[in-house]
């Protein structure tokens, strides 16, 4: 059975994509820790990140770093957080988001009902920053 992330990647469920390439995608979390919270997800369904092929793991980190730089440019946080925890969905995913404190790493603080207009604006800001960094070919335009 396909994971919820595969269903988003394949277009069976909606997603606000900011990145697409042959190996992975990046889309906004529907329960963000902060506006601009992106999930970087391999197209290949691998449950635990430690089971990823090394080249795919390296690619996910490279993409997460590019998205992190875009988040930094778009939102100007004190830091850009990166976390792999993988308890909600059995499909490896890297959380990348703007953060200003260690308290903002607590998933008990996610926004359960984010404003769709704010989500659209967050995606636009990240896409614009990615394009400015030279990633126009990978940026998903809605």
From TrEMBL:
Motif placement: Histidine triad motif: 91-95
Lineage start: Bacteria, Bacillati, Actinomycetota, Actinomycetes, Micrococcales
PANTHER family named in the record: ADENOSINE 5'-MONOPHOSPHORAMIDASE HNT1, HIT FAMILY PROTEIN 1
Protein name: HIT family protein
Keyword terms: Methyltransferase, Transferase
InterPro entries given in the database record: Histidine_triad_HIT, HIT-like, HIT-like_sf
Annotated ranges, domain HIT: 4-107
GO MF annotations, alphabetized: methyltransferase activity
